[in-house]
Amino acid sequence: MFERQKTGSVLCSSCGQLVGVNDEECFHCGRRNPSMWGFGGALRALGRDMGFIKLVIGASIVLYIAALALDPSGIRSGGMSLFAPSVPAMFLLGASGGMPAFEYGRWWTFLSAGWLHWGVIHIGFNMMWVRSLGTPTAEIYGAGRMIIIYTVAGIVGFLFSSLAYWYAPFIPILGPLLGLLRLGGGEITAGASAPIFGLLGALLYYGRRSGSGAVSREMVSYAVFLGIMGFIIPGVDNQAHLGGFVGGYVAAKFLDPLEPERGDHLLIAVICIALTALSIVASIVTGLKFFPT
Questions:
Q1: CA-to-CA distance for 283 and 289, rounded, in angstroms?
Q2: Any idea of the CA torsion for 202, 206, 207, 210, to the nearest 10 degrees?
Q3: What SS3 class is residue 11?
Q4: C-alpha 270 chain-centroid distance
Q5: In 3D, which of 203, 96, 51 has the Cα closest to residue 141?
Q6: What is the pTM of this model?
Q7: Which domains does the chain have, with CATH numbers?
């Protein structure tokens, strides 16, 4: 499946135009190494996102099942928390927040927490948005830059949440809705919503950068809708959402969507995925001594 093509023509991995497999630069869009060392065709077979969306969905489901299996007696249900894994199981697999980051020094959980979820509704809702927003982001930015944006947004989101919990745990309530507007960050937090808001931020930046008012308005409407839901639904980490949005928007500015994707973007994306996998391994290895047996 991943056989390297050494002769003939291929489609440029950025603009999709025909180029020679050994061309150093795409004549159409200027991308360096447009054939991706001859593996471009095989990678394009995975889809425009190069399989990342399927990886997120598949790995999130596996980790969710693992969290349930690790502590069956701790599974909780009630309200939005339908079949929610226990806190010890989520801590072991790499949940983030003020407690893991500041009390235990598990800073790598800023990478791992975006792949963990607190229940069936939580994971189902988030995976729907990953698919809905990940595909257009990959179409616009390319798979490599989309993965970078996703990763950066998750890191910044959980950093925001952890800092808010540790240094400002009781930011004033903005309204009387049963105390649901608390913005103090999370003691222990997880979920793909931080990187999802990052994808929103990246698409909003593209709309403004390209002058597409339709894209900008659609992303603003999504952000407002999800923001309102975050204030209404109990237990939502709004600081992670805010941080994810900021991280995605800023990352998009550095990864100009109107410029062709470069080969080093894909290399950085691979590093992001590898570091995320290592963060989950590190969480398990260092967390076993805290896990009740």
A1: 11
A2: 170
A3: strand
A4: 14
A5: 203
A6: 0.84
A7: 1-45 (no CATH), 48-290 (1.20.1540.10)
Q: Record the tokens describing residue 232, joined without a space.
A: 């209404």
Angstrom CA distances, 146 to 62, 170, 273, stand at 22, 34, 12
Alpha-carbon distances, residue 99 vs 50, 78, 167, 271 (angstroms): 35, 24, 12, 27
pLDDT tens digits, one per residue of 138-158: 989 989 999 999 999 999 999
Tell me the β-bridge partners of 78.
Answer: 81
| CB-CB neighbours of 146 under 10 Å | 30
Residue 191 tokens, joined: 């979920």
CB within 8 Å of 254: residues ≥ 6 apart: none
Q: How far apart are CA 148 and CA 155, in angstroms?
A: 11
How many other β-carbons are positioned within 10 Å of the β-carbon of residue 91? 25
Whose structure tokens read 């095989």? 42
Instruction: Enumerate residues 6+ apart whose C-beta is below 8 A from 20.
Output: 8, 9, 10, 35
In tens, the pLDDT along 233-283 reads: 777 888 899 999 999 999 999 999 988 888 788 889 999 999 999 999 999
Name the CA dihedral angle for 214, 127, 96, 228, rounded to a multiple of 10 degrees.
50
CA atoms of 137 and 54, how far apart (whole Å): 15
pLDDT at residue 14 in the model: 62
Q: Are 117 and 291 in contact (CB under 8 A)?
A: no
